[in-house]
Amino acid sequence: MSRIESGRMVLRQEEFSFRQMLEQINTMVMSQCSEKGLRYECRLIGGVSDYYIGDDMKLKQVLINILSNAIKFTDAPGSVSLSVERTALYNDQSTLKFVISDTGIGMDPSFLPRIFDTFTQENSHASSRYGSTGLGMAITRNIVQLMNGTISVKSEKGFGSEFTVVISLKNCEHHGLEQARINPSEMRVLVVDDEEVAAEHARVVLDEVGIKADTCLSGQEALRMIDSQHTRHEPYNLVLLDWRMPELDGLEVARQIRQNYDKETTVIILTAFNWDEIMDEALMIGVDSFLAKPLFASNVIQEFERVARKNNMSLFGQKKRAELKGRHILLAEDIQINAEIMQQLLSMKDAHIDLAENGEVALKLFEASQEGYYDAILMDIRMPVMDGLESARRIRALKRKDSVGVPIIALTANAFDEDVQRSLQVGMNAHLSKPVEPERLYQTLEELIWERDCKK
Fold first, then answer.
1. Is residue 180 exposed (0-12), middle (13-18) or buried (19+ Cβ within 10 Å)?
2. Which of 52, 281, 370, 419 has the fewest CB atoms within 10 Å, i.e. is most exposed?
3. Backbone angles phi, psi at 329, to 5 degrees
């Protein structure tokens, strides 16, 4: 306090890892809360970056001072929380708002104007019970003011307290991804969290470094989305699963992912809690790793790479592919120009194509062929006489060995998940949206034919 009052306290202006600072705070606070039987939660809202320029030591001191008080004056089974939100972005500065809340003993509103004065406690009984010098809040306010920030408090006797600190930090170009072996834009991630704010925060932070992320709020929705992407042959590289969710929790979703798919998708459990109690079960299920909340993009990429190296796998789970040369493809397409384009694309790979103008003709051609003659079927969905869904359903129902194993790929202008689900329900293997990208067409055919050949 004497250093502050004499003007000898100076702020550093150095690049620091906001992520690491927050991890250090959370590790300490979570341990203290666990010892007292309190619940602790840390949340990030908005585009909080991995790195800033400022004095992380002083900022950490401010937050720890307030959090330590929150823990001290809260009894079990209470809770303490910290939220961080970027409220403004102007030129090279970001304004961050920190809100620390607790469910503790609270304070009388009449005392609040004096809370930041030196050597001040609300009453001597609280001081003797909880141990306090009355300097912590005064030091905290002075550091915040030194940072040109503000600090405020709301409280009510018996209903806890809420402190709000607002400061500005200089932005930093450093994203902490220089050592990454992967291109973030090649990653496709699904974030599953029943709290919409947490899910959206994860999407925002991943998007800021170029990672495409989808979000959903339940385990059931996650399984449906994973199914749809798998059918499109654009599987998620990574699924980030919240541990504690209603109905299907993260462990059960992970279990079903591993039952339905191989290791093409990395599964990481997200939690704000200590995961020791579920670690053994999670690893047996096939969970690849764990990450603590709140989420930072650099953590996601580093952990994804670590899992890939540990499992000695390709970072993006590339599948083996068969040659298309000499393969027989049945194409069901009623629009002539579309049929000509598809025939030209397949001819470039030296594949043989039989054209059917509707689903009924496709069914008859397949019935008349020798078993195993067709290596794959490309099936337009909307066609006259018999549509692609009905044609695929009838092909799958035929009493011949190849009717079950032949890959059937839906071709449609409809890219909605409901259309993908309908394709799945009649037994199709994949779903390609029109106009079909040539490389996507080749990859899907080559992968499915390879899988079919391996099962023979």
1. middle
2. 370
3. -115, 130
Report the pLDDT value the prediction gives residue 182, as an integer from 0 to 100.
66
- At 190, the amino acid letter reads L
- Asked if residue 291 lies in contact with residue 197, where contact means CB atoms within 8 angstroms, the answer is no
pTM of this structure: 0.62
CA angle 387/392/398 to nearest 5° reads 130
Q: Which two tokens stand for residue 227?
A: 């199914």
pLDDT attached to residue 123: 55
* Burial status of residue 48 (CB atoms within 10 A of its CB: 0-12, 13-18, 19 or more): buried
Strands 212-216 and 289-292: unpaired
CATH no. for 328-455? 3.40.50.2300
CA distance 75 to 102: 10
Rounded to whole angstroms, what are the CA distances from 139 to 63, 82, 121, 333?
Answer: 12, 20, 14, 75
CA distance 107 to 258: 51
Q: Which CATH architecture has domain 2-171?
A: 2-Layer Sandwich (3.30)
Q: With a cut of 50, say whether residue 133 has pLDDT above it.
A: no
Per residue in 258-269, pLDDT (tens digit) is 988 766 788 999
User: At 18, phi and psi to the nearest 5?
Assistant: -65, -35
Interhelix angle for 417-425 vs 388-397, to 10°?
30
Q: Nearest-CA neighbor of 70 among 62, 79, 58?
A: 79
Q: What is the DSSP string of 376-422?
A: EEEEESS-SSS-HHHHHHHHHHSSSTHHHHS-EEEEES--SHHHHHH
- Which segments of the chain belong to CATH 3.40.50.2300? 184-310, 328-455
Q: Model confidence over 381-400: pLDDT tens digits?
A: 999 999 999 999 999 999 99
- Ranges in the chain annotated CATH 3.30.565.10: 2-171
Report the amino acid identity of residue 403.
Answer: S
89: helix, strand or coil? strand
Sign of the CA dihedral running 235, 257, 452, 313: positive
- Ranges assigned E (strand) in 156-220: 161-171, 188-192, 212-216
Task: Write down how long the chain is.
Answer: 456
d(CA 456, CA 454): 6
According to CATH, what is the number of the domain 184-310? 3.40.50.2300
Nearest partner of 167 among 143, 184, 150, 190, judged by Cα: 150
